[in-house]
Design brief:
Elements: H1 9-26, E1 29-31, E2 34-39, E3 42-47, E4 53-55, H2 61-65, H3 79-92, H4 94-112, H5 115-126, H6 131-149, H7 159-168, H8 173-190, H9 198-204, H10 213-240, H11 267-289, H12 294-312, H13 316-329, H14 331-349, H15 353-365, H16 369-386, H17 390-408, H18 412-426, H19 434-443, H20 447-475
Antiparallel strand pairs: 1-4, 2-3
Helix pairs in contact: 1-14, 3-14, 4-12, 4-13, 4-14, 5-11, 6-8, 6-10, 7-8, 8-10, 8-18, 10-20, 11-12, 14-19, 15-16, 16-17, 16-18, 16-20, 17-18, 18-20
């Protein structure tokens, strides 16, 4: 029997687009009414609860081939619509795609200065006898940044650096990606003060921003330790016996990612890294306090490029050579983000997302309190497959979950907890997560290999999440 193999990432995502389009022929269409509300300095379009209406479908040959607009009816996604989903997805996520390109270019430029190499060799030399201390320090730094600040897509370009560290310490390619990706995903899930998940959800639920932090800090600790134990358990197994690797035949070559020769630490390297850390922290602060988005962040990184060039003493031509090399490295990751967005495009055009949300909410309303709370977790995890955007989910689901939690006697804080757990944990494993697929593309790891690697962690994390939901309900959190 031939072993099943998941195809190339672009083919895989396109097959999901086709499947999602087929669903629009069989799943009833419907929609909620939406309204614009002011949340402090932000205006957001949110769903109006109890406003769902089913919309009749219109079927025709023209509709199947090229699409047909009929007033008062929805048309399933046409063949042309399937093909158009990719350019539309790229268009809808253009700002994020550009941001991924810019981040990759900036990181590559810094790498060309030798800064990363100098610090990495220094750290490896210092922690040579205690490498796990170094790994734990790196892991917790990323985990904390993800949980408190919401770092994520901007770390894609750091994959080559983590690969170099992994190879130097005799681990494999999957361990290198796991050291970066696991703390990002689990840290995002714990969401102590994540501005892209918990803060938006609390604003919509009319809760004080930052409230309920105690239980989320406990979740932070539980997920952090679980993730690190899982990662090191795999790493120790591979280090002891390389044949135990999920990619035993991988030569783990790094030539495609640039030079990783030993570099002596110089004053300019300290200035460059110090400037980058301070600048990056300032950008994240502006995101939380000034409402900056991806456009302002991209502009800031362009400015960082100019300053780093001067600090490194590079000529304009040298800087642009490194910059364009970074753009080239990020082509696949950036395009994957846009192609993955095409899935939500076809579901929206077929008008079936609101139908799925409506029927799920009806089922939850009929359940006992604690079961309904766990159902919220399942619902949010499922919704993330169709709307792989934390803020997008919040604007769709939280306006429904807020009154539902009131009716069921579940605190709004618990509804927020279910939201961040459902969004974060599913990101570990769903193929519609554009950032995850972009990372796998740059890392040259198939989704199949990643799935096999991370599935046990996903299952344990879901159990932990469900336990925290139960604690929240029982304690009146």
């Amino acid at each position: 029997m031939r072993k099943f193999k998941i195809p190339h990432v672009f083919i895989f995502l396109f097959l999901i687009i086709i499947f999602s389009s087929i669903l629009t022929y069989f799943v009833p269409s419907g929609s909620y009414e939406r309204t614009t509300r002011d949340y402090g300095e932000r205006k957001q379009t949110v769903v109006i609860p109890d406003s769902y209406k089913e919309i009749p479908k219109h079927y025709s040959l023209q509709g199947v081939l090229t699409g047909e607009d009929v007033e008062g009816k929805s048309t399933p996604v046409s063949l042309l619509g399937i093909l158009s989903a990719i350019p539309k997805g790229l268009s809808d996520s253009a700002v994020l795609v550009f941001y991924v390109f810019i981040i990759g270019a900036v990181i590559t430029l810094i790498q060309q200065t030798g800064t990363f190499n100098a610090f990495l060799f220094g750290l490896i030399s210092r922690f040579r006898k205690k490498p796990k201390q170094l790994l734990f320090l790196i892991y917790m730094t990323i985990f904390t940044g993800s949980s408190f600040l919401g770092i994520g897509p901007e770390t894609i370009a750091l994959i080559p650096v983590f690969f170099f560290l992994s190879k130097q310490l005799d681990y494999d390619r999957i361990f290198g990606l796991g050291l970066l990706n696991i703390p990002i995903l689990l840290g995002w899930t714990s969401g102590v003060t994540n501005p892209f998940t918990v803060q938006i959800a609390q604003i919509i639920a009319e809760l004080p921003i930052g409230s309920g932090m105690g239980l989320r800090l406990a979740l932070f600790g539980a997920l952090a330790l679980t993730g690190f134990y899982f990662l090191m358990r795999y790493g120790d197994k591979v280090k002891k016996d390389p044949s135990k690797s999920l990619m035993p035949d991988d030569r783990f070559e790094l030539e495609d990612y640039g030079s990783f020769e030993e570099v002596k630490l110089e004053r300019k390297h300290i200035f460059i890294l110090g400037f980058f850390i301070v600048s990056y922290a300032s950008v994240l602060y502006a995101v939380q306090t000034l409402g900056w988005g991806l456009i302002e962040m991209s502009a800031s990184f362009i400015g960082i490029t100019i300053v780093v060039t001067k600090l490194a003493g590079m000529t304009g031509d040298e800087a642009m050579t490194a910059f364009t090399k970074g753009l080239g490295v990020m082509i696949i990751p950036a395009l994957v983000v846009g192609v993955a967005r095409g899935i939500s495009v076809v579901l929206s055009e077929g008008m079936i997302i609101d139908t799925l949300i409506h029927h799920a909410s009806v089922v939850l309303m009929s359940m006992p309190k604690i079961v309904a709370a766990e159902g919220m977790l399942v619902f949010q995890s499922t919704l993330n497959f169709f709307i792989p955007s934390a803020s997008g989910q919040a604007l769709v689901s939280m306006p429904l979950m807020t009154p539902m939690s009131d009716i069921l006697g579940i605190s709004r804080q618990t509804a927020v907890l279910a939201f961040i757990l459902g969004d974060g944990l599913s990101n570990i494993i769903i193929p519609t997560n554009g950032v995850l697929m972009a990372m796998l593309g740059l890392a040259k790891i198939s989704f199949e290999k990643w799935f096999r690697f991370v599935l046990p962690l996903f299952i344990v994390s879901i159990i932990i999440g469900a336990a925290f939901i139960a604690i929240a309900v029982l304690t009146g959190y």
